[in-house]
Amino acid sequence: MPVSGIGFFMRLSRALALTHDVAAGTQSLEGLGALLDPELVKSAFESAGIATIRKRRLPLEAMIWCVIGMALCRRMSTWDVVNHLDIRLPGQRPLVAPSAVVQGRQRLGSEAVREVFALTQRRWHETAHHPTWAGLRLLSVDGVVWRTPDTPENRERYGSASNQHGDTGFPQVRMVCQMELTSHLLVSSALAGYHSNEMKLAEQLIESTPDHSLTLFDRGFYSLGLLHRWQRTGTQRHWLLPLRKDTQYEVVQRLGRQDALVTLHTSPQARKQWPDLPETLQARLLSKTIKGKVRQILTSMTDPLRFPSDEIVDLYSQRWEIELGYREMKQGLLASHYTLRSKTPEMIEQELWGVLLAYNLLRYQMLEMSRHCPGIYPCEMSFTACTWAILGFLNGTSLNHPGNIPRYLAELQASARHYVLPHRREDRRYPRVVRPKPSKYPTKNKNASQLN
């Protein structure tokens, strides 16, 4: 991305302080001014157990922006990010040594960035006023894999894919995220090594799940212990996922031709792993024929009056939004550079939390822009176009005339409709294909004779 995101956010923060009197009463400025509030960052540092004891050229607050800049400025080295974006104390020498950047990241660690992500997502979701379906916020949980540099430390910590000849390819981090589907704002995330179980990682997201919500799962997350715990923790935390072919159930009551209440029997092994899991669970099974194929959906929403059956099966198609979010992070934000840049596990996790934080920063701004487009959700706006508009247009705003900042922001938000995507075609198909395994060796290009 050729335009600096860090410069935009840091200069905008200073400009908002200068124009506080001018912009009094402007809701859009209040929302922007809440980004990475210093008190919030301070609370995150205290929770992580770190603090700046003495004045340094790169204080911890500045290193937060450095980690975000590693995601926003993917084509720049970390040292270039710090020096080009002027992330240092004022009055210091113009250049920062590369070793100081490394030491600054090590002092910051990964837990502090994780805490900043957790506190900011909570604040942004509270102010977002997400639309609901039947009074429930729509969420989704799915897994994603990140490739790391092939260092001994990363390979020992995370592992990699393997075959009969041993480990292959790069070490990889397995991550499970929870996303709000209308805004693509991330709610929570958990990560571990490549060979970890996604259902175990999803278990770590239960506590952060908001009440009065519906979470869409892929069929790979079918675990009665996980689904029961998900529903019982909190108030009105429902789940929905496709029925697995080998699922055994008994029909208790017919609610319609393709709508029934069913009983699911749990196994002794599952009850041993989940002590609060009963011997049977009641769920709702719905079926619908779509393009000649029968789709079956299992859900905890058993009330037929509140949750109409004809909408529930179609609702599952919204799960694809989290896949689009992963594509935005990997291809749009990281410019399709699929291998992370850090060499050690601690810095890998710091970098990943920085990617999630940077993505939420951009997505929150898109949410603010969508408020000026009635009837348009943030997920219906172009992530690439909005990112270039936010980081480019505001980065060029001069601070010599801070009184103009409100007008510039109003112009940006007024142009939000230009970034609305066309309606998605229902007839588009994306058949599954076998993809080549990732390799640390370059792929040989075909020569001209092979292309003819």
UniProtKB/TrEMBL annotation:
Residues 135-361 form the Transposase IS4-like domain. One of its GO terms (biological process) is DNA transposition. Residues 442-452 have a biased composition (Polar residues). NCBIfam families: transpos_IS4_1. This is IS4 transposase. It comes from Pseudomonas indica. The lineage of its organism: Bacteria, Pseudomonadati, Pseudomonadota, Gammaproteobacteria, Pseudomonadales. One of its GO terms (molecular function) is transposase activity. Residues 431-452 are annotated as: Disordered. InterPro entries: RNaseH-like_sf, Transpos_IS4, Transposase_11, Transposases_IS4_N. Residues 27-118 form the Transposase IS4 N-terminal domain. Transmembrane segments: none annotated.
